[in-house]
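sorry for the late reply, my laptop died twice this morning and i had to redo everyting from scratch. anyway the thing you sent over, i finally got around to it. pasting the sequence first so we're on the same page, its 412 residues, then the predicted structure underneath. double check i copied it right bc i was rushing
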Amino acid sequence: MSTRVTAAPADQLTVRRSNLSLVLSHLRDAGPRSRAKIAADTGLNKATVSSLVAELVERGLVGEGEVERVGSVGRPGQTVGLAPGRVVGVGVEVNADFVDVTALDLTHEVVLSRRAPADMRALGERGAIALVVRCLQEALATLSAGGSSVVGVTVAVPALVDSGRGRVALAPNLGWTGTELAAQLDAALGLGDVRVAVDNDANLGAIAEHALGVGRDVDDLVYLAGEVGVGCGVIVGGELLRGSSGFTGEIGHAPLNPRPEVCGCGRVGCWETQVGLGVLLAGCARGPDDPVLDGDADIDVRLDEINARAAAGDVATLETLQRVGIALGLGASVLVTIVNPRALVLGGYFAVLEEHLRPFVVHTLLERVVAPDAGGVEVRASRLGFTAASRGGAVVALQQVFADPTRVPVPA
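ok and here's the structure:
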């Protein structure tokens, strides 16, 4: 006796979710287009596409656009595209001297951007997390008042992060060890179904550059985050490289400094002791009261002052920039030799001071990388500044909607 197996209703729902994801992701990648064009591009039939688009419109994810006129015979179709503003992902960067919050909508446009300067290590773990909570509460209230619905929060930390558990294993520049950050933020914010995730800041910076920055046109890139700590995010074949334990990219603590200088992690000789932000600021300072050392001042203001001093020919500033640029090139040459990326993206303060650092980086790469022409790598400066990690967090928060649009409920 044979038993006939029929598709369960759940399977039909799975197919429906998959097709909704296909259409929404296609609109993200290809831009607004007519229903007929979506059907032709995706291989779905026109009736199915019309039904899927209707549901996406109902969920507030897609909106009607202009009439598409291509000169063909027949009635012109109306374009549909991602709906701006309503659905947002929130990214937060927690760094040694600031908290940055960025919200992006489905089109990756910035809906909200705020930064709070602070000496996070001096605040201690409890005080620092309390500041993050306050910044998030204020941002979420502003977004809600503006009619935006938050679908996820991703927090970037300069640390070894167990992203699966949302746990900070070790953050030397913050003084955190074994911090259950996601759980603490969940408890403090009470966001219900809105997931709080935690990841390494350089990883999220790399994701941001690949999704919406200077690395959009390449699928193999190395992103270097120049902040108090130094890390890198690696994209290979369009995917983030995490490694077996998720700790890929901790280049700042590689023993590349021949001088036995003590790092914030307690070890000696780390690359960070040559190219970290603190080294740069100390080298450019004219004394202990120099405003570039003021941790309560916004970092962009302090770096603008260093750019101004370099333009004016200040000897100490120029010598420091040369020393840091050469050391930056040496470490980057190791990464380029191992990964062979198409682009090396300078982020954080490396990008702000790119005019002065880049010549030394390029020269050192050409001198040190064994492959001809440094393996063809292009050195590019991020245009996302110190918001790269928080923007990457927002991009990751939004990915769950593109993976499953039904996570966004139909408005009552």
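DSSP finds 13 helices and 16 strands in the chain.
thats about all i looked at so far, will dig more tmrw
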